Amino acid sequence: MSGTRAGGLSAPRPPQGYLEQDKAAPVIQGWCPGALRPMASGDGWVVRVRPRLGRLTPAQAAGIAELAQAHGNGLIDLSARANVQLRGVTEASHAPLIAGLRALGLIDDSVAQETRRNIVVQPFHGASDPTLAIAADLAALLAADDAPDLPAKFGFAVDCGAAPVLTATASDIRIEVHDGKVWLRPDGSSRAKAISADTAADEAIALARWFLRMGGVTGGRGRMAALIARGITPEAFDTPLPEAQFAARPGLCPTGAMIGFDFGQMQAATLAALAQLGALRVTPWRMLVLEGAQNLPALPGVITDPADPMLKVIACTGAPGCLQALHPTRSLARALAPHVPDLLHVSGCAKACAHPGPAPLTLIATAQGYALHHADQITHHTADELLARPELLTR
Ligand code: SF4
Question: Which residue intervals define the domain Nitrite/Sulfite reductase ferredoxin-like in the entry (predicted)?
């Protein structure tokens, strides 16, 4: 990682009781960073911006690039919940950064509002589908004083384009369109309730309240799928929906041009260059859609080839950028990428935050090296072994 600005940093929420010897046991924060409530990392504070309705205007994108350079270390991440993270922010630079983001219309009134506005919007929505209207209604209800007090990671997916594409994106309440009808579905269940687009947001909030009433939250944490797994299901959600599959790849798409980035991270200069090309839709696949573009941009730091080997590796920040990481992740993932048949996830600790679901191949840093999870087997290797014999990945 370059441009580290951790000097003089005081963390807003340091991991409780964190000691060097505790590194093998990752600290579960139970919350995600926001803009008003940043999270400490090894390279400074991480400030997460939630673009409204999943979209950045050219002015907002250019402004974020400028602010990341001025008040962070110039590195910008795309998150798995379609958010934009500025890295390397300091205690001193946080206030002017927030003022700049607020001027761009990207800051909520309070931490509570920011935390609740956890909505992933399908990036392929069109003028004739209800995605934006439902997402806007939902955002308004979640900003209200009487909004349900949901756990920090609880989220909504508004997936109402031609077909669902967000089924693999972490969300607790899903609003989907199947065969032209709008459905409400609790995560963890394949059964849904038919609803109308006009009342979809209200119905989603009602389902969130049901989740709270049924004891979905323990100690401030809880996810819908865990409640459903306990056999607790809402009434009238009885229509089985077909399973939707979607694999995100760079290329031209119904709403423009989708582009990727190594590990979903870009330099501020890259975002500034993209802002010149038009509005951006932020996806949960750590890619951006250049709205309305008919050509793929030829810019440094941008992946446009769907066969690029870097699309086969996912790696969290790892060491030294993350305080909990036992070893680096991205340098190893980059070196192994040409040898990966399908997908490799490299994680700096057991928390696996870059890819919470299973992957065909997973490397998890341990005190001694890396544990390779492949099929049902776990083997242990050093980075040097893996680099010298990448066939170990699939043997
Ligand atoms: S998975 Fe990676 S980014 Fe997440 S806490 Fe562990 S080392 Fe840090």
Answer: 38-103
